[in-house]
Amino acid sequence: MNKTSALQRLNHTFSLGTLFSIPFKLHWSIIPFFAIIPWMAYRNHMSMTESLLLLLLMILVLGSVLLHELGHAGAANILGVKTHDILLSPIGGIARLEKMPEEPIEEFKIAIAGPLVNLLIFTVIAAPILLLTYIDIVEIDWTMNNLAQPIVFLSLLAISNFILFLFNLVPAFPMDGGRILRAFLASRMARQKATKIASLIGKVLAAALMILGVVYMRPIWTLIGIFVFLMADMENRQEQETHKLRQFLASAICTQDYKDVKLYTPMLELIQMHFSSDERNFIIRDQQNKITGIIYPAILDDAMRIKENIQPVASYVTNRYAIVNVQDDTLQIYDALIKADMPLALVMDYGELYGVIEPDRLLDVMRNKEIA
Ligand SMILES: [Zn+2]
Question: Is 69 designated active site?
Answer without folding.
Answer: yes
